[in-house]
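Regression test case RT-17, inverse folding.

Input:
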């Protein structure tokens, strides 16, 4: 195995992600700086039309990816940049020409194509990062997005329009730089996976659901709640932006200080129930003591923004595992996002405004309960399997650590036995005494793929037991 440089988190990537989140018109937040204008009747046609078109476009990309037809980086980038900028300019022109229904629908179509294409471009870019780095990357991008949107909010309409177009041009520049960097720096790493790693690609749709299902539900709940709360979101948008920056800082600090991969894998279990319990408690106190709703809204936003950011990070980790095409992962997530957003818009128009707060609290409790139940069941199953796989390991082996930890020795073994980068990741976890279930969970790969990696490692090292693996990786 040749030494390959690990992907570095570049400032252009962080800024680019922030610009994407600030200009993605299929999401309601980038529209907020323009909501206060006098005549926005075109939104009644534009918003649902764009979501419908975005759903159709993302579904087309899913079908193409499943059939093995993947557009090149350059083709996808050209489509994304061209349609996004044209759609963004036309979107601003709707402020004056919004009464032309045909122009509104055409704008929605072009904008949605550009938005979905750029989501896939940045899905491929974010797929360079493992979970910990993905959390930091997404959280930094979220903070940048909050700052950009806040600047857009305080500018008058002409300046905000120019700033919006400038952000789209900046996004184009950052996208070009990052895609070019992917070609230059990571071509060898991709070939390492595709040519040298003899894995049985037997992953199924059920494996994808297991790996990313609960995360995508978090993204859908975020889209649904933000759409239902569209009027309340406008009234408390400054609190929303504060929550974006606050939760981004919290996630960055947590990810930097946390080194245990299983804890990183279960971040939703760490944060979602906590915010849900705080929200329920503060809601009760607000009603009891007549407190204002500012803290309640802050907790609502913290919870759902946290869910959205963690979902994006976990989707990046799934794409990083390379069992599934990034286009399948992110196009599928985009499709479900727009479906949830469209459903939220419909429900928001049907229910009375005074019932919205109750609907949000109920949805929050159901979501938090689902996260806890799913995490508890998957955690118990994984830990039971992992415990069984470590019972036969002699304590003398697990307690005797080589100098510098197992990572250093595993890297030496990987080089001498020509292991691939993914096999090195698996070997390090094996050297820590864990089994296949744990490997599958923390590396976002299917159990079959984890077992295949383990068999390949055994074959290359010429061993037949885990005890021998531990002795080799600990110099015993």
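Golden output:
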């Amino acid at each position: 195995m040749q030494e390959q440089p690990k992907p570095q988190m570049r400032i252009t990537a962080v800024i680019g992600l922030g610009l994407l989140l600030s200009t993605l018109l299929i999401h309601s937040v980038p529209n907020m700086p323009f909501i206060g204008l006098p005549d926005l009747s075109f939104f009644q046609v534009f918003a649902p039309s764009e979501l419908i078109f975005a759903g159709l476009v993302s579904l087309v990309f899913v079908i193409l990816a499943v059939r093995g037809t993947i557009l090149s980086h350059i083709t996808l980038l050209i489509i994304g940049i061209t349609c996004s900028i044209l759609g963004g300019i036309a979107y601003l022109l709707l402020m004056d020409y919004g009464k032309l229904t045909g122009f509104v629908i055409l704008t929605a179509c072009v904008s949605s194509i550009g938005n979905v294409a750029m989501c896939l471009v940045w899905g491929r870019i974010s797929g360079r990062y493992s979970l910990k780095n993905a959390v930091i990357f997404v959280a930094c991008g979220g903070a940048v997005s909050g700052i950009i949107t806040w600047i857009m909010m305080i500018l008058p309409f002409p300046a905000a329009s120019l700033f919006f177009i400038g952000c789209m041009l900046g996004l184009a520049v950052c996208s070009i730089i990052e895609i070019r960097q992917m070609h230059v720096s990571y071509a060898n790493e991709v070939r390492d996976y595709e040519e040298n790693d003899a894995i049985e690609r037997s992953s199924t749709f059920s494996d994808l659901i297991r790996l990313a299902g609960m995360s995508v539900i978090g993204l859908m709940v975020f889209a649904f709640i933000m759409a239902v709360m569209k009027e309340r979101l406008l009234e408390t948008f400054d609190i929303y932006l504060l929550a974006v920056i606050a939760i981004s800082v919290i996630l960055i600090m947590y990810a930097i200080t946390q080194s245990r991969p299983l804890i990183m894998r279960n971040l939703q279990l760490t944060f979602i129930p906590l915010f849900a319990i705080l929200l329920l408690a503060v809601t009760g106190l607000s009603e009891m003591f007549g407190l204002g709703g500012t803290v309640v809204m802050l907790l609502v936003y913290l919870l759902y923004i946290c869910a959205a950011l963690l979902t994006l990070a976990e989707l990046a980790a799934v794409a990083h595992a390379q069992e599934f095409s990034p286009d399948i992962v992110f196009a599928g997530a985009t499709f479900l996002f727009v479906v949830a957003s469209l459903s939220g818009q419909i429900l928001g128009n049907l229910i009375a405004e005074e019932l919205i707060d109750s609907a949000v609290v109920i949805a929050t409790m159901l979501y938090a309960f689902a996260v806890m139940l799913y995490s508890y069941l998957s955690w118990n199953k994984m830990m039971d399997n992992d415990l069984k796989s470590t019972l036969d390991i002699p304590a003398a082996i697990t307690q005797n650590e080589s100098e510098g930890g197992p990572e250093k020795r595993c890297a030496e073994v990987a080089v001498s036995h020509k292991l691939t980068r993914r096999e090195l990741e698996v070997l390090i976890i094996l050297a820590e005494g864990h089994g296949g279930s744990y490997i599958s969970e923390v590396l976002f790969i299917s159990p079959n793929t984890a077992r295949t990696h383990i068999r390949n490692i055994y074959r290359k090292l010429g061993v037949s037991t885990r005890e021998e693996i531990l002795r080799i990786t600990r110099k015993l």
